[in-house]
Specification:
about 270 residues, about 30% strand, single chain, 4 helices, 3-stranded antiparallel sheet, Barwin-like endoglucanases, 14 strands, alpha+beta, 6-stranded mixed barrel
Amino acid sequence: MANTATATYNSLIPGYEIKVNNSFVLIRTAQSEAFTIRDRLNLIFSDANRDLEFITASYTSGLYVVCGPLVRHNTGDTTYFNGNQSVPEKVYETTNWSDSGTASTQSAIVTITGTGSTPWLEAFQIANRIRAAINLNFNTIDGNSTCSTFVEPANKQSAVASVISSSAILQYYAAPTQGTTPTGNNLNKNVLNGEVLHSQDLTAAMTSTGQWHTLYQNKFVKVTNLQNVSKSLVVRVTDQAPTNQGIELTYRGYLELGSPGTGANKVKIELLAT
């Protein structure tokens, strides 16, 4: 079924309410910004081959964003998962932010700007509201006809509650070379909390050592590059990493953290406050 985004002025706010299929998504006070977001959404919606299940919160050029990665059915790309299941789409594509103005390559939706103290939360919630409102072009990887929403953590404050590790091992997964051949580097389609892995999302796996994966599952954590402390990201823990492997970021998270390399003593990990 078709999807439609609208942007309508509401004098009671005052501001422009952006809706998808008549469901509220976000508000913007500037008409130009509201119309841009509306038009970006409608461009993505006009691509009949787009897998809308991959709409997600991400990060680019120092800002948290919402994007619709270029995961497309019926275009010759096939991604392989463990269990020899193949999916007619390229899940681990590298472009999370293209404002091309062309339906088949448009991925940009919303940039989170302003002075808010929790931009990662705003991006996450906007992505979830879009996901709740859309009609999918075809069933999800799991065979569902409706798009699921992500698990929202309870710890939504910008303040740090505790330091998990002042010097942790860093790894990454969902790189472009993974999932694009039927052999080697294959990944399960589902992460530990039941969601499908979104390589452009700001999510992470935490090691089973010390029960980190249990303690911090579905929590927001702040990850800082120890080689360049100006580079930090807030990510959501959704998966389990192997023993003694610290934290694994998605490939997008790893790139936006400044590609600090993998191994020991790469990142500081902090738990955000509830």
